[in-house]
Amino acid sequence: MGDRRFLDLGPLQLERGGTLPGVRVAYETWGTLAPDAGNAVLVEHALTGDSHVVGAAGPGHATAGWWPSLVGPGAPLDTDELFVVCANVLGGCQGTTGPSSAAPDGAPWGSRFPAVTVGDQVAVEAAVADALGIGRWRAVLGGSMGGMRALEWAVSRPERVAGLFFLASGAVASADQIGTQTTQQAAVRSDPAWAGGDYAPGPGPVSGLGIARRIAHLTYRSDLELGARFGNHVQDDGRFAVASYLEHHATKLAARFDAGSYVVLTEAMNGWDVGRGRGGVPAALSRVSARAVVAGVDTDRLYPLAQQQQVADALGVPLRVVPSPYGHDGFLLETEAVGVLVRELLAS
Ligand SMILES: CC(=O)SCCNC(=O)CCNC(=O)[C@H](O)C(C)(C)COP(=O)(O)OP(=O)(O)OC[C@H]1O[C@@H](n2cnc3c(N)ncnc32)[C@H](O)[C@@H]1OP(=O)(O)O
Ligand SMILES: N[C@@H](CCO)C(=O)O
């Protein structure tokens, strides 16, 4: 684990209206910030990720990291040279203000938590950068939902982003993505324990969140991989192996993630359109001045290559294709191939 800290920011005006009276941000860093702050890179996590890019063993527990081999001495994000920052996203549940955080009255925000956008999330990160004394990132990197924030940084604050790594993501939410995410939200809301979003602290709507994760996880993997691993095999316990696998991931997510955050973050993804208010996607992408590496996973059925091709074409760079049997989760699993591309960006 990196050096995990918290920052308390002032009020935040939200794009869709309203204000959060204060925002707490949990963030981690690795490496040492250079005196001129020119060696800082920002890593953006995906939907259910957090600031733990690298995992660590702790007393009686282990913290999982989600890109562990990408950060460290000699790694693609080489901490002998770079200062690596990752912050838990606004609306999340791993230390940054979200629906499970206490509102000013001391009770969880719950259903009162306002709608937030990718732009709001990046505004919070910009305040973190200001607080750390980082004027310009050497690179901002992200996959999936993290790719949205990386692209938003490069479009909204081009003078602050020297390098952009955009992976397995899109410039605007597709009907397919909105369709699966709103179905996941419906699963959460259909759980009686959801209580309109105002469930008591504790397990909460774990059944609804688990069903949401099963639906989501199917979109994160490929038909071919699931077929090769599970086929129509029925386990000794009578369950289809693939159903047992999905249930396992459902149980794990429901134990580690807040249902309110799941709804708020998927809604931010539903509303994602980098071209909104900027004259459309091509006009928005024309603002980017960063060197860019744009990549996708060949078997990704959730964020198909055409979505990264659109960004690559607009930025005038070749689309880099990561071969993988795993589908969308290839962005987390194919760390060797992803690492090569990260090194390429930082070397240029
Ligand atoms: C960037 C981010 O922020 S994302 C946050 C990253 N972490 C997560 O999302 C956690 C959820 N997991 C995932 O999304 C993906 O599984 C990944 C990408 C993290 C890992 O993928 P893989 O290494 O391919 O793992 P896979 O999907 O095969 O799952 C393995 C698990 O399934 C279990 N499993 C496999 N087959 C079965 C089965 N038939 N029945 C029940 N469980 C099964 C394994 O025991 C293993 O359990 P464990 O993870 O508790 O040890
Ligand atoms: N496994 C990832 C996939 C979403 O991009 C997550 O849970 O965030």
UniProtKB/TrEMBL annotation:
Compartments (UniProt record): Cytoplasm
One of the record's GO molecular function terms: homoserine O-acetyltransferase activity
Entry's EC annotation: 2.3.1.31
Domain AB hydrolase-1: 40-334
Main enzyme class: transferase
GO annotation terms (biological process): homoserine metabolic process; methionine biosynthetic process
Residues at which substrate binds: 213, 329
Pathway: Amino-acid biosynthesis; L-methionine biosynthesis via de novo pathway; O-acetyl-L-homoserine from L-homoserine: step 1/1
Catalytic reaction annotation: L-homoserine + acetyl-CoA = O-acetyl-L-homoserine + CoA
Keyword DNA repair: no
Cellular component terms (Gene Ontology): cytoplasm
Active site: 144 (nucleophile), 300, 328
Chief location bin: cytoplasm
Keywords: Acyltransferase, Amino-acid biosynthesis, Cytoplasm, Methionine biosynthesis, Transferase
Highest rank taxon of the organism: Bacteria
Record-linked NCBIfam families: homoserO_Ac_trn, PRK00175.1
Function text: Transfers an acetyl group from acetyl-CoA to L-homoserine, forming acetyl-L-homoserine.
Similarity section: Belongs to the AB hydrolase superfamily. MetX family.
The protein's assembly and partners: Homodimer.
Protein name: Homoserine O-acetyltransferase
Organism: Modestobacter versicolor
Gene name in the database record: metXA
